[in-house]
Amino acid sequence: MRIVACLVSLALAGCVVSVQPVVTAASSTFDARLVGHWAEVDGKDRIVVSRGDANTYDIEYTDSDGRVGTFEARLGRLGQRTVLDVQPAPRESSPMPEAASLIRGHVIYVLAVATDSVRVSLLNPKALREAIKAKAAALGSFDDHDQLVLTGNTGEVNRALGSYIERPGALDEPSAWRRVRP
Fold first, then answer.
1. What is the pLDDT of residue 5?
2. What mean pLDDT do residues 38-55 have?
3. CA–CA separation, 181 and 38 (whole Å)
4. Cα separations in angstroms, 83 against 67, 106, 110, 133
5. Which residue from 40, 86, 57, 78 is spatially nearest to 179, judged by alpha carbons?
6. In sequence order, what are the residues at sequence separation of 6 or more whose Cβ sits closer than 8 angstroms to the Cβ of residue 49?
7. Distance between CA 24 and CA 20 in Å, rounded?
8. Are 51 and 35 contacting, i.e. CB atoms less than 8 angstroms apart?
9. What does pTM read for this prediction?
């Protein structure tokens, strides 16, 4: 459920956000398996993923209370991991305006994609804070409320996180999603 909370910005206490893109347009890829209607296995949240411009995805997220938020995303790699770089869609008409005001950047999701299922993990903010403090992850950052904001440029974030996310404990427990229709 923490992934859902981060996505809709209702409880950002466990989120890591980058002020710069983690996946650039030049490094993005596209996986058609992500396109479709998805349901959270252990919850009531739903996501509709469609192809955006070039190698991007448009995401419409509906929480269990029926609130809807719209997001854009790019798929890419960090180290050996597949990641989805998600940010609020720049639409003023989004029915969930708090998403755009509370997520001030790019949320990084680590994905394990199969044909009709996907497992999604977030970076563990507590572990990353400790790694930054111990200089085990060379990243500029600050806390905005309980949200960890990474301030490095795209290259710095990629270099630091590319090896960091392979460490035990770097990721939170994954959330499982299943395709409900294409």
1. 44
2. 95
3. 7
4. 25, 11, 4, 24
5. 40
6. 34, 35, 36, 38, 57, 58, 59
7. 9
8. yes
9. 0.86
68-90 per-position pLDDT tens digit: 999 999 999 999 999 999 999 87
Query: CA 174 to CA 83: how far, in whole Å?
Result: 13
* Alpha-carbon torsion, ordered 99, 103, 109, 115, to 10 deg: 20
pLDDT bin (cut points 50, 70, 90) of residue 100 is: very low
3-state secondary structure 90-146: CCCCCCCHHHHHHCCCEEEEEEEECCCEEEEEEECHHHHHHHHHCCCCCCCEEEECC
- What is the pLDDT at residue 14? 66
First to last CA, the chain: 23
Identity at 130, one-letter amino acid code:
E
114 CB burial (10 A radius; 0-12, 13-18, 19+):
exposed
